[in-house]
Specification:
The protein is mainly α. The protein has one domain (7-121): Orthogonal Bundle (Multidrug-efflux Transporter Regulator, Chain: A, Domain 2), CATH 1.10.1660.10. It contains 6 helices and 3 strands. The chain is elongated, with a radius of gyration of 25 Å. Pfam families: MerR_1.
Length: 143
Amino acid sequence: MADEGREYTISEVAALTGLSPHTLRWYERIGLIAFIGREANGRRRYTAHDLDWLLLLTKLRATGMPVADMVRYAELVRRGAGTYPERQRLLEEHRERVLKAMREQQEMLRLLDHKIEMCRRGTVPEPPREETARAQGDARPRA
């Protein structure tokens, strides 16, 4: 959480969120973040609320949410409480995609664990040597 009364420069926000200044400007241009305050010289000044919002966006992006869905979510938030059902639907759909990806990753992890255990036991079957494979009619190159 950010300090409530404090304002942050774009460099500070970049350091705190892991987003580059270029990405922060792009997020503002496409409507992911809005109403960023400015100093008299035009430099951006982010609030604690802006920082919290950006941290949420980084989490959504890290889970694979498409930028278009993030923009839609941001638009809904700006429209207010009447959009809760639509926000809920959008988040639930994304949640299902995240769960599917997690299941796929778990499958891959199980395969890796199996291969590691085979190596540990020394029971990994060796692929046929190229000359043996050719003699048996398999002329595919080996990677």
